[in-house]
Each structure stands twice: as structure tokens, then as C-alpha cells.
Amino acid sequence: MSILDFLNFYLIPGVVLGSIYALGAVGITLIFAILRYAHLAHGDLATLGAFLAFAVVTGFGLSPLAALPIAMILTAGVAVGIDKVFYEHLRERPKIVTVMASLGIALMVRSVVQVVWGVDAESYVRGIVRPENYFGLRIKDREIYTVVFMLALVGGLQLFLARSKWGKAMRAMSDNPNLALLSGIDNKKVVILTWVIAGGLCAASGVFLGINTELKSMMGWHMLLPMFAGAILGGVGRVEGAVLGGLIVGIAEELSVLVLPSEYKAAMAFAILLFMLLVRPTGLLRGKVL
Amino acid sequence: MKILLSMNGVTGGYGDADILQDVSIQVDDKEIVVIVGPNGAGKSTAMKAVFGLLKIRGGSIIFDDDRITGWAPNRIVQRGICYVPQVDNIFREMSIHENLEMGAFLKKGDLSAAYDRVYELFPDLKERRKTLAGALSGGQRQMVAMGRALMLDPKLLLLDEPTAGLSPRYMEQIFQICRDVRDTGVAILLVEQHAKQALAFADRGYVLAAGQNRHEGTGAHLLADREVAEMFLGG
Question: I need a labelling partner for A176 at 20 to 30 A (CA). Which of A115, A167, A244, B223 fits?
Fold first, then answer.
């Protein structure tokens, strides 16, 4: 196999898939950092985001990219609503109660998607897209903007967390929730902000998965394990770690085809997750211990 | 001298059991008051009662002519009392400067005067403002914690065992900082394990035992008291 074949058939698709996972993993890591539980409805929320964008694309004739911000805002709203209606009441209970509740939410969200949009595969745009040829590298436009958008969104988030008052409040609450309260930081607002960001990123990951493959009601659920593997691999609570972790999981899944039958692609995320939890549970960038 | 804080016969605890029984403590303007006593005497609990972290079942707490019994901590912060817990009192993964910024979270507008004030009290911190607070030594962390609490210009600062685990050199430094803070017009109520040194440096002291007032008076008076010396100060 030539080096170009390796790049075209394994590495580039791996980076694209990894970028999609990274968007979800960042949300998972933020929710864990602020609220301290694993959010199992994250994948299905991504599905919802993808289908909301689909509704905008088919309803208003917009391109998927133009529909993306609308889907992000709508999904952020749904995420905040779910927190208000379901998770908020469980805040004082053991965290495992909320984890189980989020599994229930996952099933509910998926059912809503199936009832509204059906169970058949859909796609944003019909027809086959031919990749462009860049000195032998065959890359589709949508693959470029998937990676670019991921970097822009995560870069913007990092800037927000580092510079803005409310971004710092989020970090403070993740760092030391009691002291944040003693300092007068409004934890309710920080929680809403967390869901807005996580919900928006979730929708972006769903939309980009839909753009690069197709829309299915189970698409997000199948991303849940790789997204968690990415978050844990990078170090829970670390945004840059979640990006790194998501990319590694995506690339590892594509590379696994070299040695394993492609049906076992999904097992790669599981293997990485297991390996990290056994060897280095704080992740590559030293996150919180689960 | 004006009375800034008075706890009058406060009874209460965290759950159903009362840890404090009829405890009364008073702090005047610009005064350093220390609470000492054996382990489990309810020293920290008494301080938490002031800050609204306790279920109070009897008595009242008056601060600066306001009855603050039962207020939520964030309202008390805004009223002018800041609290430095004994442990976990800094944001480890944030810089010194960001720690101070979080301390002033409730403050609107320009913070430069507040930063200047704190950095003047703690010149060491100014040099290292970009350093992560978690990377500092114990004494410097304590300074960050106090600096964070001073950002809102409180009238009263509550310190829970500020010298716990520090070397004698740092202990002396923290006490000196307390005097400097007092000289800027802030009253201080602190809980101390090192009773002898604390009573020598404070204006007045209270000795608590088993959740009740046992002795009170000026530091020198308490140090000279035979019973106090035998009970708590190791003879």
C-alpha cells in the first residue's frame, strides 16, 4: 500500500470521523466537569440535532451548513429544557440516578426522532460527491469543513473559557464548586450555560455525521461509546483532551480495518476505553479521576 | 467601639443534632477576635453559623445592624462578610489573578482598585499572578485564599484555621497579614488550633468547649487564666 493510499483511505477518513467524535466528547467532558455525571443521552441528542437540521434543509431549502447554526440553537434549547424538566430534580440525589435517567432520556429522544422522521436512512443532499484531488490527496469539501468547523468551535469555546467572566465561572465551578458558591457565583446560570454549549456541540457533531454519511435514528447512539472513549482518553474535564481523544478514537477506528474485519470497527472504541481505564484512568492530559 | 457582629445565644447544627448550644460571640469594628478550644468544641461550626452554612434553631445573628440569621451565603457575601474555609479554599487550576477575579464575581465595574489593594497586602502574589494557584506552597495558597475573600471589600473576614499545617515562619507571616488587613479597616474572626500564639496576637478571644462558651476576654487575660491554660493550652 502506498503512503497516499494510507492517507486517502485511512488517515483522512479517520481525522474526519475523529472530528465528529471530538465535538461530542467535548460536551461530555464539560458536563462531567460541571455536573459530575456521565450523560448517556448525548448521542441521541446529536441525532436530534442532525434531524432538526434535516427539517430546516427540507423545509426551507437551506444548505446543511446554513442549517447548522439553527440546529445548534434548537438543540441547545432542548438540552436546557431536558435539564430543567428531568435532571434538575435529581441534583441532590446520588449521581448514578441521573446517569440512569439520562439513559431514559436517550430512549425518549430517539423515539421522538423515529416517530417524527421515521426509521429509514435519509440524507441532506442527494447524489454522489466526488472528492477533489490535491496532489494525490483525495479530499471532499465536506471533509475539509467538518475539520475546520470543529477546530473553530472548539477554539471559540477555549477562548470563552479562558477569557470571559462566565467562562471563568464555569472553570471555577468545575475546579471547586463549594468555593464557587462562597464567591457568589450563580451555579444555576453556570449549569444552563453548560447545557447550551454541550447541546450546541452535540448538534454540530450530529449534523457533520449526517453530512459525511447519512441520517439514521440510531446514528447518535452508535457514536456514544466512541465519544465517551474520546473524553476519557483525553482526560475527563479537559476540553483540549477531549479533542485529542476524539481524534485518536476516530483514527484508530479507521486504522483497525487494516488488521480486523470492518465489522469490528466499533469495538476499537471499547478496547481504547477499557485500556485507558485500566492503565491510566486520568487520561492522557490528566483529567479528573472517575 | 461599634459592635459589628453579635451572635446571641445561637443553638444549631448541620442535621438534627445541635452542635452549638447557646453560643454568644461578639466582634467589634476593626477587631481581631479568635475562637480557640479543643478538637470538636464547635469552633469552625460557630464560624459557619455566621456564614449561613448551619441550621440555626435558636438565637440570632446581627451584623452591622441587620439580622442575618438564616440568610443564604451569597446574600451574606454581598452584605459584607467573606469566608475562607480551612481546606479547598482556592481554585487550583486557575491562576492567582483569576482566583482574585472569581472572588470579585459579584462586583460590577472596574476591579483595578480591588486588585491593587490585595496585591499591596500580598506583594508576593503580584509577581506570580499568572501562576496556577495549585502550584503554590501552603502559605502562599493561604494568601491567595485570603486575597480572594478580600476582593469584595468585606467589613468582616472569617478565617477557618488559616495557619493549619503551616511552618511557624508562615504562621507568623499570616498573623502579620491579619494585622495588616485589620489596619485597612476589616474586622477578623478566626478559628485557631495554635491557641497560645493566636491568643497572644488577637485583640480578644473566646474559648469554646463541647459547643458552649467557656471563657472570654482579652488574649492576655485568657493566657493568664489558670483554668484555660490547663484545659486547652497544655499547661
Answer: A244
CA atoms within 13 A on the CB side of B5: 30
- Check if A168 contacts B (Cβ < 8 Å): yes
Binned at pLDDT 50, 70 and 90, residue B169 comes out as confident
Please check the confidence at residue B235 and state whether its pLDDT lies above 50: no
Q: CATH no. for residue A62?
A: 1.10.3470
Q: What's the domain range around B171?
A: 31-42+72-232
Q: Which of B75, B84, B100, B102 to mutate to test the interface with A (most CBs of A within 10 A)?
A: B102
Taking CA–CA distances from B93, the nearest residue in chain A reads A175
Give me the mean pLDDT over the B12-33 stretch.
90
Contact A215/A49 with Cβ under 8 angstroms? no
- Sort out which chain B residues have CB atoms less than 8 A from A171's CB and list them: 91, 93-94, 98
B106–A182 C-beta distance less than 8 A: no
Residue A289 pLDDT: 53
Kindly tell me if the per-residue pLDDT of B31 is higher than 90: yes
| Rounded CA separation B6/B26 (Å) | 4
Q: What is the CA radius of gyration of chain B?
A: 17
Predicted ipTM?
Answer: 0.85
